[in-house]
Write a structure and sequence with these properties.
Layout (H helix, E strand, L loop, with lengths): L3 E6 L18 H15 L5 E7 L2 E7 L13 H9 L3 H14 L4 H13 L3 H14 L4 H17 L3 H14 L4 H13 L3 H14 L4 H14 L5 H14 L4 H21 L6 H15 L3 H15 L21
Antiparallel strand pairs: 1-3, 2-3
Helix pairs in contact: 1-3, 2-3, 3-4, 4-5, 4-6, 5-6, 6-7, 6-8, 7-8, 8-9, 9-10, 10-11, 11-12
Length: 330
């Protein structure tokens, strides 16, 4: 990694990065706070740092302890990337802010600071940074599309559906096969009540990323919301695909619950008259019988019922009856 040196006018330094009471250029408190800021920014990089104040300017120089292969930069983005990947955001943030001090329209710094702000709930700041990132990445369609997606999600978190939709559509125009942008726009359209349009976006996303289980689930859910009768079979196949690919976890549980709602609807359709009062009566009688049993007899009946159920029992068979040996007269 190469060393770096740069100079900033005290008056142009972003004083909001400093503690209150130390934001006046030229003062001892300002110099101390700026020095502390840069020392923290470069702490994770090791090496030797020099911060000098002269003629109203801040002179910063940093040298590594040993030469390492890396591209030039102040600080180099190559050193910040691993911190972001390891989610060491507290270490990455000051380095990104320093990069932005040196290059106010640095595309990667704008994008990453915008994403961090969005994740931390500072949505207005995030949207300002990401709008700048969209412009700064104008020469790179992929990077610009990513910035548009991040902007869309930040806007959606702030319930600004108009900018969210505009940003996501712009991302898809730049990268028509951006599966995440397609899925995000599909979710936005479903939230807005445009179910058919949202379903179309989910289908486009699955055409690009067939194994995306979140999109698979979202499509099934939207289909059932649009018309549970017409789309019942397709939705059930999609949900089964999710469960088979990922049997456990939150997404699997949601898929199982949704399949359960399909089964409940099927049952209601087969019994259009609603609740069968004879079945309710039988259940109440069974509960009354169990209430008067001692523990030993109760366990014997329960075991026989369990053994009978192992072979599978059909529902809605009013003409079929079964007797329990442990419960004479049943």
């Amino acid at each position: 990694m190469e060393g770096t040196a740069f100079s900033i006018e005290e008056a142009t330094f972003d004083a909001s990065l400093l503690p209150e009471g130390s934001r006046t250029p030229g003062t001892v408190a300002f110099h101390r706070a700026v020095t502390d800021y840069f020392q923290k920014s470069y702490a994770s990089m090791g090496g030797q740092l020099s911060v000098v104040f002269a003629a109203g300017r801040i002179e910063v120089a940093w040298e590594p302890t040993a030469p390492e292969p890396a591209g030039p930069g102040a600080p180099a983005m190559a050193s910040i990337g691993p911190l972001l990947q390891q989610r060491r955001f507290d270490e990455a943030r000051p380095l990104l802010e320093t990069q932005l001090q040196l290059q106010p329209e640095h595309p990667e710094a704008l994008y990453n600071l915008g994403v961090l702000a969005s994740e931390e709930g500072r949505l207005e700041e995030a949207r300002l940074l990401l709008r700048r990132a969209v412009i700064a990445n104008a020469g790179d369609a992929h990077a610009q599309a990513n910035a548009q997606v991040a902007l869309g999600l930040a806007a959606l978190r702030q319930e600004d559906r108009s900018e969210a939709r505009q940003a996501l559509e712009a991302a898809i125009e730049l990268e028509p096969r951006n599966a995440f942008a397609l899925r995000s726009l599909g979710s936005l359209l479903v939230i807005a009540g445009a179910l058919a349009a949202g379903i179309e976006r989910f289908r486009q996303a699955l055409a690009v990323a067939l194994d995306d289980l979140v999109t698979t689930f979202n499509l099934a859910q939207a289909l059932l919301e649009l018309d549970p009768g017409e789309h019942r079979d397709e939705a059930d196949r999609l949900l089964l695909r999710v469960i088979e690919a990922q049997p456990y976890g939150e997404l699997a549980n949601k898929a199982k619950d949704l399949r359960g709602s399909i089964a409940s609807r099927d049952l209601r359709a087969e019994q259009p008259e609603g609740v069968r009062q004879d079945a309710v009566s039988y259940c109440l009688q069974a509960l009354q019988l169990f209430e008067g049993m001692d523990q030993q007899r109760f366990m014997a009946v329960l075991s026989e019922v369990a053994a009978m159920g192992q072979g599978g029992l059909q529902i809605n068979e009013p003409g079929t009856s079964r007797n329990l040996k442990t419960l004479p007269g049943s």
